Each structure stands twice: as C-alpha cells, then as structure tokens.
Amino acid sequence: MQTQHVSAAPLSLSVRLRERWAAGIPCSSDVAFAFGVSFIWLALYNVRFWELSAAAMWHPSAGSVLFMASLFVLAWVVLALLLLLSPTRWAMRAAASLMFVIAAFGAYFMSEYGAIMNQEMMRNVLQTDPAEVGGLMNADLGLHVALLGILPALLVWRVRLPEVNWRAQLGRRAIAIVAALGVAVAGMFANSADYATFFREHKPVRYTLNPVAQVVGMVGLLAGGRDSRANAPLIDPAGKIERTAAASAKPLVLFLVVGETARAANFQLGGYGRETNPELAQISGVTYFSNTSSCGTSTAISVPCLFSHLPRTEFKVDEAGNYKNLLDSLVRAGFDVQWRDNNSGCKGVCARVSSIDYGQQHGFDDVMLADLPETLRKIDRDTVIVFHQQGSHGPFYSERYPRQFERFQPACRSNQLQHCSQREITNAYDNTIAYTDHVLASQIRMLREVSSQLDSVLIYVSDHGESLGENGIYLHGMPYAFAPAVQKQVPLLIWTSEGYVRRAQLQPDCLRTEAKLPVSHDFFYHTVLGAAELRNQVYDRRLDLIAGCRRGGGGE
Ligand SMILES: [Zn+2]
Description:
With 556 residues, this protein is an alpha/beta fold. It has 20 helices and 15 strands.
C-alpha cells in the first residue's frame, strides 16, 4: 500500500505535466501575449535596470513615485513594441523566443559583472572567439540560461492564441500600439523635468533595459557597418615619410608590447603597494609613465585607436579600417614589421603586415618569446615586432599565468568572480600583472643580449584597465564618459638600450621627468614614429614622448 502510493504520485504528476503541456497556456489575444511576455521581462530580467534607475532618480516624494511609475509604463511599452511590431504571429513567437534567450544572457552579465549592453558590448560579442567564450562559461551561467532562457523560449510556442483573421489582428495591434504610446508619452510630458535629467545625466541606465538594449545596440552596429567603404581605396593620412637620422651601422629593433586589461592602479612602478613589478623595478633604462589614460575601455576600440594617427576625440572605430595606420608607415619606411598575437586578433590593424597567431596554442604570453633569441640574432635590418598579449584578460585571471607565478595567495581560481572574495580576486589579478612583469623583463633581457649588434627600444602599454568589483562593477567596457578611472588609467613604459640612448642622444633622467605628466594613448603613434627615427605628414612632435629628451637633433 505504502510503496504503491509512493510510485503513483510521481506518475500522476508526470501525467498531469504532460496534459498541461498538451493543453498549452491560454492567452486571449496577441496584444495580451505581447504585454504579458514583456511584463515578465520587466519584472524578472531587469533587476539591474531598476537598481540603476532607483539609484539615479529615487527620492522619497510623490513626484518620484509618479516618475518611477511612468518609467515602468514607458519601459513596458518599449519592450512590448518589440513583439507588437512583428509582422506575423509566427514572427512574434519567434521574436519572443529569441528575446528570452538574449534576455537571460543579458540579465546574467549585467547582474554578475555590472556589464552594460551598449554598442561597444555588441561589438565585443560579434568579435569574440571560442577561447573568450569558453573563459566566460560556467555551470551557473548554463543553469541560468536553461531556466530563464531556453525553457521560456520553448513555452512561448505552447501559448494558445484564438484564431482571428489577420485584418482584425492588425487592427487590434494598431489600437494597442497607439493607446500604449499615448499613455507612455503622456507620462513623459507629466514628468518632463525628471526625464530630462534621466536621459541626460544617467545615460548608461538605458543600456541596461533588457533585452531592448541588446537589440538597439546590435541594429545600430550593423546599420553603421553597412555603409563602410568596403571597396574604396585606403586613405593614407601619412603622406611623405622621411628618416630623421643618418643611417646607422646597427639595425634598430622596436618591441611594441600591447598589453591587455592591465590597470595602472596595480602597477608597483606607479606606486602600488604590492610587489607586482619585482623584475622591471630592477632594470635600468625603464621609464614608467604614471598618468596615462586609454583611448577606449575595450580591446575593440583601443587597439585600432593606438595605431591610428587620430587622437581619441576624433577617432571613430567604424572608420579606422578606412585609413592606413602606424604599421603601414613603418613598412613604407622600409621596416620589417611583424604582429604576434596571443589575444583575440589584431582588430584589422595588422591587415597588411605579416602576423603570427599564437591563440590556438593556449599558451601563456611567453609563448610569443620562445624563438626570440634566435630571431633577434638573425635580424639585419630595422625591425618592429608587435606583441599583443593575453595579459590580465578576465574573468579567469588565474588562467593567465603559470602556477609558479602565483605570488599572491589565496588566488581566485574561478571565472565566477562573485564566488570569490575581494582579496582572492585582487590576488589573482595581481598575479597576472606580476607575470606580465616577468614577460616584459624577459623581452628586455633578450634585447640586451644582442645589444652589441642591435639598438633597441621596448614600448609597453595596456589597451584599457579593469574593474575588480569596486562599486559592484567587474571587467571593463563601460561607456568611456562613465567608466571608472580604473578602466581608463593604464600602464605605459619605455625601455631604451644603452646603444639607443647614445644613438638618439637622449639626456639622462629627462624621460623620468616627463613621465609624471598626464599622457594618453594619443601619444603612442607619434612616440613610435619618433623612436623609429621617422617623420611623416601627420607626425606631431608634441605627442612624441621621446623627442623632447633628444639633445640637439631629432626634430626641430
Ligand atoms: Zn582588451
């Protein structure tokens, strides 16, 4: 009796579930479907949006209550429009299905990492690679997407809608759209002062309206990309290029190390209290620029910007591919140029130079150095090698360095930062910086080894910084104007060989004095040209960090 009862219960439950599934979910109309689904999004998938909206606008007053109510209506209408504007009922279901999955991802990354779903983020999504995706995957995310994404996406197809001819359907939808917009717009007029503040002062909030923000960002990105001058000839802003120094007996070698996600705040050379640069601190000839701001807060913006002749304020990432860049000028001047990549690609910068992709080897950044001693010995002409590091790319910091470089312990050993303490996250991140320190020092030692044969300069700069949980924000990619300083302040350092100091007639200690001034990624293009003893039509001596320290010659 007892056993029968136990086995009968799950059976009847499964039968009931199956019947329930077959019966579907009743719904009175398309309009009810659209507003029902969008209400679920607004209530369950928009925690971040409501947190930020409340933080920005809430104060205990009747006016504030009215504003929040009106914002709720407005957001609800905007979300419902995503579905109501679908041309057919099938398209509406498909859109709802897809949006549930997109919204599930969005909700996860916004609440766990404080991510924002703007155009830059969509660009990162489009430009990502399997390694990066793998780095973000974890069981939590899988469960989250299965329950809040896949399951509702399937349920959407079980909603039973009454048969109505398309003319009547269209009529009802039109009435609903007009009425809903009317109410939403009336609410905006009634609270116009609050809305003015909200839209002007708190722009990032709108990038968290899930999943509208992702759709708007993606559409904007694709629309912007379409009119790109795909087949038009490249614009060469550089014009005539000339050497600024007499030919030398020794070839010149420049190492340009483009770091990844290293923030200035954690560099010992810039005053950080932990020994994250134990090796570089011992090397003479290193100048660290302690006040350097980045061009963007993501790789996709900063890397092309670094190699562009345009300053940050004029640089447009969509148009970067229309121009020849710094590497083109170096090639034109007769340099041998090579791009080595252990990151997610050169973002178009290395399109016309030789490149080696180390990404598939899944090695640490020293994988790019293995052949250097031999390669350097064979160099017989002026050469530039760019190293695009994996650096401190999150969230899986502990995967960026070999175990023996785990100086700071305990380190977060997960890509789910929310499961680690602040101290563990900082430890893991500092280990990545200490490892980068080792890689840079190794490169300098290799250049020193061949100093009798080559004059050399190493320039290291990170593409952007990183948030490590300050104010609940992790990773990077915030809109520039609103990003915290830690995402925009990056390490920059220059090392010159003794042979180069003599060759360029650099005044001792001059660079160290300059290194305290505020500089930025804008200086990179001109500093590299200057260091290579070159000048072209867009070269600006004021943005060349080395030029001012040359005695006599080296520009006017
Ligand atoms: Zn980056």
